[in-house]
Amino acid sequence: MNQSNIRNFSIIAHIDHGKSTLADRIMEMTNTITERESKAQLLDDMQVEQNHGVTVKSRTVRNRYRDDNGQDYEFNFIDTPGHVDFNYEVAKSLAASDGVILLVDATQGIQAQTVANYRLAVEAGLKIMPVINKVDSPNAQIEMTTQQLLELDASFDAESILQISAKTGQGVHAVLEAIVNSLPAPNGDINKPLKALVFDSEYDSFKGVIASVRIIDGQVKADQELLLMANSAAFTNKEVGIFTPAKAATKQLAAGDVGYIVTGIKDPHLVRIGDTITNQNTPTDEPLPGYEPAQPMVYAGIYPQGDYNEMKDALNKLALNDSSLQLVPEVSDALGPGFRGGFLGIFHLQIIRERLKDEFGIEVLTTAPNVTYRVHLKNQPNVLTVDNPIQFPDFEQIEMVEEPMVKAIITTNDAELSAVMKLADQHKGIFVDMGNQGSLVELTYQMPLSEIAYDFFNKLKSVSHGYASLSTTLDGYKLADVVRVDVQINYARVDALTFVTHRTDAPEQTKQLVHKLKYTIPRRLYPMPAQAVVEGRVIARVDIPPLRKNAAVNGNQYSVSKKQALLRRQSINKRQAVKSDVELPQSVFNSILDLNE
Predict the structure, then answer these.
(1) Which of 184, 552, 565, 579 has its CA 20 to 30 A from that of 275?
(2) Is 93 labelled as part of a ligand binding site?
């Protein structure tokens, strides 16, 4: 295919604005899939995507299109997620694209991730094509949505904003024609040495690592000797091909094409997202700039409920498929060997846990998420970086603690402004600035990362009825008055339940926590105290009731001798309990997540 007839593009949108439905219509109208193969949200094939109704993993598919003039074109569509936790996936997809379709729901207008993803496209220097979806709905507000788009970007023209219904197919043909006429073709040189961007990858037990690539310059065929430039890893590729959306082998991939390369590499760590693939014998002069490494927002422990090695292999394969997941081995006294995982957000953590179960059949325990603190110790010049609450020093050793801050940009409309500002104040937000983004209000806050890492985005969507967007960037560290909370079950410290919180929040949070533990810790034949300890003091306590009535609180039902015998037996059990492990279900760790609800 001539380069001038290739279009590499993505669709960016807020959740539920119809991105996956539009992708389905494009594949149907270009005969990429047959009527028998057609189904709703075809590209969202993972179980977690179907369960939550969101795109988690970007997918690629090649479409063949013949325009109204009888000219054939190659459309390489690179899918993007819509949830705020997966902005990194969006950035990866945009790096392999030359243009984007900005899709907006006519019944909702410009919402949350619409603005955030628009900014990513602008930063990537991509041509943006605005499209309004769901115009056939009786609740459609086409004029309002058009005005919002014009205020968002002054370069948009009201007459060129397409109006479609992705569900019925109305107007989708005009979108296909606009892709041909409005979006640019790639500009690579087929005669230069091979330069291919690895924008995604997956692991196959038989074929090894399969890299999704965008060919920038040159061309590649099967059985060539290639080189991954970041790790200087040489390999002979076994196969090249395209996504239709299933993998289909081809003779070659040339400049401008998007497809895959079967590397045959069995070590997942050798293939990095953002790496450059080139020829071993005639390499390109300079590698592509690649991607900025993903910055984890929260950390949490991951421990197996079964075999550790099986979980380890599964996580390594997931990390290859999800480059934003970061893993470091660790060992817990209560839960044994596991990993400390770095995640983009709380929803990202939930998705990883569900993928382990759905794709590998592995059940895991995940501890409460936390952020990274800088701890200054007394009489020591070195600063201790703590991303695991278990490693947080005792209070008598600490000079001061710094916590990570973020610059949070919240975009909302006038109606929800008061509720959004109130929510930011409740989460210790420091107001910085207020401005306008078209018809929307743009608020800038400085906030502790720990305050927004868990459920702030969900609360923001709730108070703003889905209209507010959240964009965050790390903004250094700031002094904080935080304490380590140790949780003891039956007088034995459970390190996996340790967490760090602000001192002012500790009394109320620990009171809620021990109350929840009362109903989530598995009961035994004797009562067990659950208590929270801060700086050597117990600040909250509750007794977990026994499976049966306790002889010590049964009044005069038994004789004195019977009661004394039962008390002696219970006392022995208590002493043994301090030395024994407490089996913790996932609901125990979820108790810490729910403290602010």
Answers:
(1) 184
(2) no
